[in-house]
């Protein structure tokens, strides 16, 4: 049995929304800092083994924090949406999402939920790629309207 094609304009499921440019910048900077700190620790002869370990450990810590900052994403599939933020992951059924909001000045998309709460979806953020974030928010909004009981708001 084949699955029906999505309505025109909807992304094919599953789809992942994430701030790709931001992710590339964060991970590149983290790796570059780790390489530089490791090179400094190995090249300076006055450093003890403890000093070297501290430099490399600091580079690893910075890379870890930047990797954590690059983690957010929103994954939509046939059954619902998974929102992965910095330290949390939440699975939502389509019917739980009432509205998808990305207003001017918002740092990221907010999902209004059926229980009256709002969930930030940091995987769609206009920081470095505003046009892409707006397109992603519209695509998620269309998916919510198609698969759930949602209403959209701009």
Automatic annotation (TrEMBL):
Keywords: Membrane, Transmembrane, Transmembrane helix. The chain crosses the membrane at residues 24-47, 53-69. InterPro entries: CFP-6_PH (IPR019692). Residues 71-141 form the Low molecular weight protein antigen 6 PH domain. It comes from Streptomyces cinnamoneus (Streptoverticillium cinnamoneum). The keyword Membrane applies. This is Low molecular weight protein antigen 6 PH domain-containing protein.
